[in-house]
Specification:
5 strands, alpha/beta, disordered C terminus, Rossmann fold, globular, five-stranded mixed sheet, single chain
């Protein structure tokens, strides 16, 4: 079964994502901060990570940098947009259908941003 690591310092966000992701048949592991996330990534087989960039202590960007040193598993970035109380999911993709679950189940940002190379944001 596919295991998704949800990393967010807000318990309410972690719980909501846990319920939503499990309802689609995935296993979920939770981490409230960057250090715990790295421990979970090292100890368990994680297929996908949903990562908040605005973590206390070790920032999400540093978690991602360290994770990329040993894995190319998909990472969905969860981040607050400046000036808004909403959170959006940005999903870096490699193939044309990789954004399907994000488009179907979660809010999308109002504008599409483009990354480098074959990666883009949904």
């Amino acid at each position: 079964m596919t295991t998704i690591l949800v990393v967010d310092d807000e318990a309410q966000i972690r719980r909501a994502l846990d319920v939503g992701v499990r309802s689609h048949g995935y296993d979920v592991v939770q981490a409230p901060d960057g250090d715990t996330a790295l421990d979970k990534l090292a100890a368990e087989r994680i297929d996908i990570m949903i990562l908040d960039l605005g973590l206390p202590g070790l920032q999400g960007s540093e978690v991602l940098r360290r994770f990329r040193a040993w894995s190319d598993a998909p990472v969905i970035i969860l981040s607050v947009r400046a000036g808004q109380a909403e959170k959006w999911l940005f999903a870096p993709i490699r193939g044309s259908d990789s954004c399907g679950p994000a488009r179907e189940g979660w809010a999308q940002p109002p504008e599409v941003e483009h990354g480098q190379g074959d990666k883009r944001f949904c």
